[in-house]
Amino acid sequence: MTKADNNVGDNAEGSTENAANLNALYPFLSNKKADPASMNQALLDSISGKLAQHQRVVNDFFTTSNQALIDCSGAIAEMYRHNGRLFTIGNGGSSCDASHVAVEFLHPVTAGRPALPAYDLSCDKTLMTAIANDVGYEYVYSRQVENLVSKNDALIAISTSGNSTNLTRALAQAKKNGALTIGLVGGNGGEMLKMGLDHCLLADTNSIHRTQECHVTIYHMLWDLVHTLLADDRGNLGNTTHDNKETDNEIR
Questions:
Q1: Which residues contact 159 (CB under 8 A, 6 or more apart)?
Q2: β-bridge partners, 199
Q3: CATH classification of 65-237 is 3.40.50.10490, yes or no?
Q4: In the chain, what percentage of residues exceed pLDDT 70?
Q5: Which of 11, 87, 118, 162 could crosslink 185 through cysteines, CB 3.0-4.6 Å?
Q6: For residue 4, pLDDT beyond 50
């Protein structure tokens, strides 16, 4: 992990050479009026810095973790071969990613790929708020996992820190149920990396935004690899009106 990942407001990237950019972006810090030309250059430099960091994080992951990604995809494919279901969880922006994962599997955009059962456990606001109010927010997912997730299923938890208590409790319950457990994490992996999950995929950066950007690429790859591995099983995995021939034609 580089110093650039320990950013300040996700702008100056924490490095000495970008201190001037920080002052240009936030002139009130030095009680100076912003110069338009300096501001524009600072914004251009900020974009370049963020793009470079994004590329480094993604490249580092796919340089070191391709086999881990394939192994995780194989486990999900095997779960589907045994008529299992995929469940996803997360908080905040990672909850949006959890929903995205679920909809990719349940509503595939590539012709010829069948829908596969996948459910985002944050969708039922009545249940979520009931559990949070009656028991505590740290139980909003574990209570659902206890009753819904079986040994044939899989649970994906997405977190930029790996330390969210409601996620670690849910993963612990999923392990107790005998389900496949998968984590997508950032930073140093936090508690989720220490739990002995079946698969834990780490975006090595302390930047929340760069972590989330890497996570999107990871789960799009997971989705694609799972369908590739299931290509010979499609007749048994669901009905589709499309040919089983592989195409990249999107339907939305």
A1: 90, 91, 94, 167, 183, 184, 185, 186, 190, 192
A2: 182
A3: yes
A4: 80
A5: 162
A6: no
| Domain locations in the chain as residue ranges | 3-61, 65-237
Q: Is the pLDDT of residue 248 over 90?
A: no
For 154, the 3-state DSSP assignment is strand
Tokens 């319950």, residue? Answer: 173
**What pLDDT score was predicted for residue 232?**
83
Distance of CA 10 to the CA centre of its chain: 19
pLDDT score, position 85: 98
What type of residue sits at position 35? D
Nearest to 153 by CA among 130, 136, 166, 170: 170
Which residues in the chain belong to E strands, given as ranges?
Answer: 86-90, 118-120, 154-158, 180-186, 199-203
Element (H, E) at 96: helix 93-106
Token reading at 169: 């409790």
Three-state DSSP class for residue 204 = coil
Q: What is the pLDDT of residues 83-137, one digit of tens each?
A: 999 999 999 999 999 999 999 999 988 878 999 999 999 999 999 999 999 999 9
Structure-token match 């290509």, residue found: 231
Asked if residues 139 and 169 have their Cβ atoms less than 8 Å apart, the reply is yes
Q: pTM score > 0.85 for this model?
A: no
Q: What is the mean pLDDT of residues 208-223?
A: 98
Distance CA 107, CA 204 (A): 30
